[in-house]
Specification:
single chain; 2-enoyl-CoA Hydratase, Chain A, domain 1; 4-stranded parallel beta sheet; alpha/beta; serine-type peptidase activity; 12 strands
C-alpha cells in the first residue's frame, strides 16, 4: 500500500477527503477478500497533508486505539492575548481557528476540556522556553461527514470493518522523505501499534537511518492566516459586546501588525506553529529526537529502475530472512562498534552513487 500524501488543505470541503477515506476502506476490504495476511505501507516521498486524514487512517487500521499526541505552542504575550480574545468563540466557531481557541482542543487522551485561558496556557517552561499546556485536538469537533475521523464527531457511528492484518504482520517503509502529517502517522503507528519500520537510502556507509527526515511538528500556519487571526482577535477585543474578554489581560502592543499594514510587502511564508511531544510529560519535542528505523537497506540499481522492487526487498527483510545494513537494526545500533576499514566500491557502482547491500539482521 503506497501512501503518497495525506492531501492538502486546499482540498477541504471537496469530495477528496471522502474519496480518500472510501479508497482506504476498499483496500482493506480487498485485503480481507483475498486472504492477505501481511501488509507493507510505503510512505516514501510523503510530504504530509491533512491532520484529519492521518487520524482517520490510523483509526481505520486500529479502531480500538486513540491517535494520542501531546501538542504545545509557544507561550508569549501575543499568543496569550489571542487565547483571551478567542475565549468568546463557541464550539462551531472554534473549529475555524487553530488551538488558540480553547474550545477547539481537549486535554491529553481527550480527557476533559480546558475551561479557562489560564488552563490552556499553563505555566510550564521547557528548555528555557515558555510553552502552553499539552493538548490534543478535539477529534469530536473536527471530525465531519465531509472529512471524517472514524469513531468521532459526525463520523462517530462509522463502523469500520475489522482490519484483517495483525500489527506484527505490518511494516512501514520509506526513504526519509516524510514530513509533518506523515511523521505523525509514523509516530502513531510505531508507538501506539508497535509497527516495525524499514528505511531505504542514506549516506553510503553502514549504520542506522531515520525513516523520518523532514519536519516532525504539527500545524503549519501561513503568514496570511496569522494576519487573519490577528484581525479576528482585534475585532473581538474592540467589540463592546464581547464582555467575557478580560481586557486587563490584553497586550495590544504584542499583537502582530496585520499583513496588509506591514511596511514591506511579503509574498508569502509560513511558520511551524505547534510542537509535537511523544507524551504530555516529555521534555523534548519529536523534532529533536532521534528515531532510527528498525532496519535499513541501501538502494540498488534495480530499485532505481523499478521502485516496486523495494517492496520485495522490504518483504524479504521483514519476513524472508534477508539481512539489513550492518549496524542498522535497533539491537546493533545500541552496541558500541569496532571501526572497520573502509573498502573501495566497484567503479561501476561508485559512478552510480550506489553501494552493495550490506547484510545484518532484522529485529
Amino acid at each position: 500500500m503506497y501512501i503518497s500524501t495525506f492531501g492538502s488543505d486546499d482540498e477541504e470541503g471537496k469530495a477528496f477527503p471522502v474519496t480518500y477515506s472510501d479508497t482506504l476502506k476498499e483496500i482493506i476490504a480487498k485485503t480481507k477478500e483475498t486472504g492477505r495476511t501481511k501488509m507493507i505501507i510505503d510512505i516514501s516521498g510523503n510530504a504530509g497533508g491533512s491532520a484529519n486524514r492521518l487520524y482517520n487512517m490510523f483509526r481505520t487500521f486500529f479502531p480500538d486505539k486513540l491517535p494520542n499526541e501531546a501538542l504545545r505552542f509557544r507561550r508569549h504575550p501575543a499568543a496569550e492575548t489571542m487565547v483571551e480574545a478567542f475565549r468568546v468563540l463557541n464550539d462551531t466557531e472554534a473549529t475555524e481557528f487553530p488551538s488558540l481557541a480553547l474550545r477547539a482542543v481537549a486535554g491529553p487522551n481527550l480527557e476533559g476540556k480546558f475551561e479557562t485561558p489560564e488552563e490552556l496556557l499553563g505555566e510550564q517552561t521547557l528548555s528555557q522556553v515558555k510553552v502552553s499546556s499539552a493538548y490534543n485536538l478535539d477529534y469530536n469537533l473536527i471530525s465531519k461527514k465531509a472529512d471524517p475521523i472514524a469513531g468521532f464527531g459526525e463520523a462517530a457511528k462509522v463502523q469500520n470493518a475489522e482490519f484483517p492484518i495483525a500489527a506484527e504482520n505490518m511494516v512501514i517503509m520509506g526513504n526519509g522523505h516524510c514530513h509533518s502529517s506523515c511523521a505523525e502517522f509514523v509516530h502513531f503507528m510505531t508507538t501506539n501499534a508497535r509497527i516495525k519500520t524499514v528505511a531505504f537510502g542514506g549516506q553510503p556507509k553502514a549504520g542506522p537511518m531515520q525513516i523520518i527526515g523532514g519536519v516532525r511538528g504539527a500545524l503549519v500556519v501561513p503568514f496570511e492566516q496569522i494576519s487573519a487571526l490577528t484581525g479576528e482577535a482585534l475585532d473581538i477585543i474592540n467589540d463592546p459586546q464581547a464582555k467575557e474578554v478580560r481586557r486587563e489581560k490584553i497586550a495590544m502592543d504584542a499583537v502582530p501588525i496585520p499583513f496588509q499594514d506591514l511596511p514591506i510587502r511579503l509574498l508569502g511564508g509560513s511558520v511551524n506553529y505547534e510542537s509535537v511531544f511523544p507524551t504530555p510529560d516529555a521534555q523534548v519535542p519529536l523534532q529533536f529526537e532521534t528515531k532510527n528505523a528498525d532496519c535499513r537497506l541501501f538502494y540498488t540499481a534495480e530499485n532505481i529502475m523499478d521502485p516496486t522492487t523495494t517492496w520485495k526487498a522490504a518483504k524479504e527483510v521483514a519476513w524472508g530472512g534477508a539481512k539489513c545494513v550492518e549496524g542498522s537494526t535497533q539491537n546493533e545500533a545500541q552496541q558500541p562498534k569496532t571501526q572497520q576499514p573502509e573498502t573501495q566500491q566497484p567503479k561501476k557502482q561508485q559512478a552510480r552513487g550506489l553501494m552493495p547491500r550490506i547484510r545484518g539482521s532484522f529485529r
